[in-house]
């Protein structure tokens, strides 16, 4: 994953230096923690997350588990790995399906975050798993959004519920509700509701998303965030958490060459798990997110 290439290289270099040492002195630990801190900050990981992370690593690295280890340097790498998994959300979190179908999944995020593309990716992935998803086009803000969802639906081979001309046009809450009702009638077991975003956080958009949430009472609200947006990721995530709240995070555009660290901060800052990763424009560039695998990739 190109996004974390630089961070990976920096950490690898830090650990290489550490491995040349046998027993670790407090100064060795401090030096290592300082380098990890710089590498994370340069990768755009949010300051409060970095502080928390390096504080925990330092405390553990100075403790018994390292001083008594046969290979102290290896033990420090192991600690970094464990703490990295922790900031990435710990355990993998799977989608929660409703006991009584349909399972309602609402997508939220800024315009351009990758929501519409994600709707197609998620639908295709669910359909391959034997589900019968339908997409609902409740993004009525962008002129092309409904057509774009229809194109994505066709590519994924899943139906799309879109407002009929004259019926619900301009009223995304009604379209979302009608879409869910339609899905129930047609016995789809999953409904994915695409909603509107703006280029920046905006009170009206947030209210609309919150209204949709209230009207359809989704089982999951997935907040889609572009890994390339840098330090803005944290403020954006907080705004969506306050305005709409979400049950999980999707990191999109992890294929880019941005530093990505800000997106890595989102799980830790919001306390919501990263559930999926989007890694390209094709509908197959998509995978469930595994904190442990991501940590291994970064530390490899
Ligand atoms: P929305 O406004 O949130 O619905 O965002 P879109 O789904 O329309 O995506 C915005 C742009 O980003 C489109 O050109 C997508 O093809 C592109 N895109 C979406 N996800 C990814 C991804 O994971 N990687 C890359 N490289 N591009 C993506």
From TrEMBL:
Give the catalytic activity. GTP + H2O = GDP + phosphate + H(+)
Looking at the record's lineage, which domain of life comes first?
Answer: Bacteria
Name the EC number(s): 3.6.5.4
- Provide the residue positions that the database annotates as binding GTP: 109-116, 194-198, 252-255
Query: Main EC class of this protein?
Result: hydrolase
Looking at the UniProt record for this protein, which Gene Ontology cellular component terms does it annotate, in alphabetical order?
signal recognition particle
The record's subcellular locations are:
Cytoplasm
The UniProt keyword set, sorted, is: Cytoplasm, GTP-binding, Hydrolase, Nucleotide-binding, Ribonucleoprotein, RNA-binding, Signal recognition particle
Domain SRP54-type proteins GTP-binding: from-to ranges: 273-286
- Gene Ontology biological process terms from the UniProt entry: SRP-dependent cotranslational protein targeting to membrane
GO MF terms here are: 7S RNA binding; GTP binding; GTPase activity
Summarize subunit and interaction data from the UniProt record for this chain.
Part of the signal recognition particle protein translocation system, which is composed of SRP and FtsY.
Functional note? Involved in targeting and insertion of nascent membrane proteins into the cytoplasmic membrane. Binds to the hydrophobic signal sequence of the ribosome-nascent chain (RNC) as it emerges from the ribosomes. The SRP-RNC complex is then targeted to the cytoplasmic membrane where it interacts with the SRP receptor FtsY.
Record remark: domains: Composed of three domains: the N-terminal N domain, which is responsible for interactions with the ribosome, the central G domain, which binds GTP, and the C-terminal M domain, which binds the RNA and the signal sequence of the RNC.
What does the sequence similarity comment in the record state about its family? Answer: Belongs to the GTP-binding SRP family. SRP54 subfamily.
Output this protein's name: Signal recognition particle protein
Per the UniProt record, the source organism is: Cryobacterium arcticum
Lineage runs:
Bacteria, Bacillati, Actinomycetota, Actinomycetes, Micrococcales
